[in-house]
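User: My collaborator and I are trying to settle a disagreement about how two of our proteins should look. Neither of us wants to argue from intuition anymore, so we agreed to look at predicted structures for both before our next call. Could you fold the first one, then the second, and keep them clearly separated?

Assistant: That sounds like a sensible way to settle it. I'll keep them separate. The first protein:
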Amino acid sequence: MTEPIAVELAKKQKEIGVAEFFSRNRHLLGFDNKKKALMTTIKEAVDNSLDACEEAMILPEVSVEVIDMGNDRFRVIIEDNGPGIVKKQIPHIFARLLYGSKFFKLSQSRGQQGIGISASVLYSQLTTGKPAKIISRISPKHPANYYELKIDIQNNRPDIIKEEVVEWNKDQGTKIELELEGSYSLGPQSIDQYLKQTAIVNPHVTLIYTNPKAEQIIFPRATEVLPKKAEEIKPHPYGVELGVLMDMLKFTEARTLQSFLMNEFSRVGNNTAKEICQNSAIPPETKPKEITREMAERFIQGIAKTKIIAPPTDCISPIGSELLEKGLKKEVNAEFYATVTRPPSVYRGNPFIIEAGIAYGGQQEADAPIRLLRFANRVPLLYQQGACAITRAGTQTDWRNYSLSQSQSSLPVGPCSIVVHICSVWVPFTSESKEAIAHYPEILKEVKLALQEVGRQLGIYIRKKKKVQYESKKRGYIETYIPYIGEALQELLKVKDSERKNVESLLAEILEKTRGQIESVEMENIEYDEEFAKIGKGENDEESE
């Protein structure tokens, strides 16, 4: 008797390992093509280095070297001056996907998922078959540990090819060397642009870059001040979902519902916990493990009915408008700069801050669309611009109010670069490759308000500039006709020929004396009358909402 088909099918079914899954779906991690794969590899390594340095309160100095091996193969070497990695952790960090310390932490960091650098090792292994080479040292008193690693794809475990202690001329830090298939070219989505943009939003970092042409480019730091260290916080009640809540109730060590609320969430004190229980119609003494799904639903409704203080913001570390302006001035040649850091806001219980900056004029193209530079937790987002909430907010902003030309539903045209940075404990990316931000209404609103703030400053500057240019043009006309006016006055006043030059000098002096007075009055009129009369009403009303 033949077996049922279901039995035959059951024999073919097996568990899929995470490394095996990503080896077949590497596009999900940003390894779509050779050019993007090379850039993503460098991005993940640099992000790790910067996070490690900042956690250890070390001013980062990161070296990036890309060597062209020919036949679309490149050797990538990233070296930092960070705290180094403990020996037993090195194989797991570099050769095990979904292994890291940041997934469960509610504090701002570049990495979130624990798959970045290990995915780069996986891609290198798949395309060249060569192991990753890592050196790390934690202090001058400890040896430098050298590893050659591959990933056991079936089991998602490190496969150690070589392990030894080596001499290294650094007191501490980490160095990784990978060989992979790639493609190098210049352009808006190149390694060069990624490092340049990284230097803008990380003004405390020194980057030393050696490109495939063996040319060295140094991006020096603009400040000796490290970013404020982001503190870890507990989740906020407003962001919790039903399934997550039920898991928390199942695994908590709290004995009562009231103590569960106070111990597991931020901004929940004794009185707030009692109020949530009251609004949920559940006694505060109820044991968390006794909460049913129906009770958990009432609990979620009770949280929504309770007024709870917004989550703390010491878990995020914005750049700050002053340092953002320094970063812009260091890397973008322009004639006018404006930056802003918005007050903290919240989405799904997660605090976030939006920062924006604009650099206008200089050597930038006047007839091309503006350059929109997007950043999340100090990391440049070079791909999927059209799918990003930042782009959506940029196209929804009416830039014509700020003297830039703009077609409907598109970014404006003009000689300027616009920077938008979101910092949060959990950035809502649209995919694992972390290239675009999801369209949360709260994020869209804050980005738009930040763009309007820098836009107003830009509009004032452009109108002043146009007015001064117009005034200079008028003065030019007058200066052209001063000799003829002098000649007419000579005839009317019967002035001698020898004194005619004195008359012309007097006219020029009068014109020069009134220059500052006239222009200052015109600038004040522009700043107050035009600004508040033309654009103040609509947008200031929106901001006040």
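The second protein, kept apart from the first:
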Amino acid sequence: MQQYSQWFSRQCRRSLSHRHCPKNTQSSAAGQLRRSRVSRFGGRALIVVFTALFSVAAMPDSREVALESLGPTKEHRHATAGILQLMQRYHYKRVPVGDKLSEQIFDRFLEALDPQRSFLMASDIREFDDARHGLDDALRSARLDPVFEIFKRFRVRVDERARYAQALLKRDFDFTIDENYVFNREDAQWALTPEVMDELWRKRVKNDVLNLRLAEQSEEKLIKTLEDRYERMTRRVSQLTANEVFQFFVNAYTLSVEPHTSYFSPRSSENFKIRMSLSLEGIGAALQTENEYTVVQRVIAGGPAAMSEQVSAEDRIVGVGDGEDGEIVDVVSWPLADVVALIRGPKGSTVRLKILPGKAPAGSQPKLITLVRDKIKLEEQAAKSSVVETATGGRTQRFGVIDLPTFYLDTAGLAQGLPDYRSTTRDVRRLLEELTSGDRGVDGIIVDLRGNSGGSLLEAIELTGIFIETGPVVQIRDSSGRVKVDKDTNPLVAYSGPLAVLVDRGSASASEIFAAAIQDYGRGVVLGEPTFGKGTVQSVVPLDKEGKLGQLKVTIAQFFRVNGEGTQHRGVVPDVLFPTALDSDAQGERGLDNALPWAEVAAANYKEWSDTNTDYTDVQARHESRYRDNKSFSLLIEELDAQRVARAQRHVSLLESFRKKENLERAADREEREELFRKAFGASTSNTDEDQENFPDIILHEAANVLGDIIESSRVSSR
């Protein structure tokens, strides 16, 4: 059954992409920004992202920072002045620094420190109320003492809570009492009294104990595990330096302006350079800290995590064990760099991860997976081809599929003039020749961009160019309002037959530029879910030559389609929507605070591929009729609905008998759905790897059906 379980999970991942931190594409901008390297980090700017890709990771200073020594430095004042100037002069969105912005900065700074409102009291918030409307003045004058006073109070509160939690472990908890623990307190009120805070932590500690009891840890071991966890919680905060506090504050400012702008402290900047220069070796996952958990930010194509198909974005790593039988170490509340240090290791060695699936309901038990550390297989990130067959209109049709995980370009090889440098366009051109040549040439092509978070803008333009003759592909407007049009100038077309582009909510940036151009030219049909909506350009700017002040990643421009519409915020809406495209208003850029809104510019001068206006109403109706009759689609949608319900859950029962029953029911329900999936595809009961490999990708197979419908409709109308 394990093979089917992995396959079932893969179907769900393909159909409901997790949050992505899309890569940003290369661009140009005025003045000094034109000379800056383009950042490929995006998303939640309050969190410093480390990767477990690499064999080396910088470790944090393990010494406690004296509370009285925390305060702003002259470097912080100089950095503040430089950041404010860059934001006001070069950022695409000019936001006045005033009381309204100050309120947002204040709230986001508190959110960065105490996102679940589990440490600071309502009295603390009232005491610092002057800062709520004064942080704009602090920015302009570069006098940041109020920021450090807030952090010092937070640190004291964390120490108090850790000591209280450890004391609670000496008590006996009654798990026959029917009460709930509210674990999601993002929108809760700050605790009004110490008694309210004590009760909150009593339930939190009780829940921690219950989780480990349900995981069948002995009483002695679970108490030791939690004592260490609470000790690490306070130690982690006590080791935060003034530079890190400053980084939290500046990112509270930048995130209040726009979600893809962020500040890297000198240490973070150095870590960034180290990560970019090292070989791709490890498990192949980018990690970040959220609350007290180490969370998978994204899984890298070609890495052990991706190849295992057992790790997904938003999964929480709660334990790490080295080797086949090494002790699983609880890593909740660990500093991120320490977790990375445990996970990393030499190629060929084994690491075991205890993971809480990101989409699992609260109170679920973690799963244990084993990975073999390895170099990231870059060939797994390259374009690959396959063939899908369908029966439409009484005839069998064969469709070539080009799976494109990212838009890649070997810039070094290109600069050196190497004849065999790798690029997306060169690889796709070769695959197209293979798929269309000979007597068994395919009837159409599907470009699969699901989960493709972007990459090289140049490759997005050139790839579009092998499907059209010549013409504009994307428009870029900078912060001064100037619009530049990037064009395909090569008249050679590598493939002129029926074309579909398959996208989902993880398709972003360069993927959206390609899909939008194919759609605007009428060159092919776009299928799937509305895309991420990442239509902005960032550049990383050093704040000084010596590197003492850090760097600012700043949003400097915005992408627009050739028809004048923006890809930002709305993304690309498919011509034929698939049923997995539910609650799309909360996905991608649309779910980020302060994201730039949709906008438009004048349309570029372009000629559509065909003069015929394609109406996909009938095709959409056929698709909907087909998936309603498909048992596998119904089961998939049920699973996605269950995940949505789980994400909306805010509390968990502390009644042990109920939790045990709930866990058993969830496991049985999932096994039943897996079994129904297996039967729906007529699989044998042998549970072999060969059986699993023969299972079709439901979404891809339906994309082939839709393209077959379009071809058949064209054939009928041309008679």
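Some points you might bring to the call about the second protein. The chain has a mean pLDDT of 84. The domain at 281-375 is CATH 2.30.42.10 (Pdz3 Domain).
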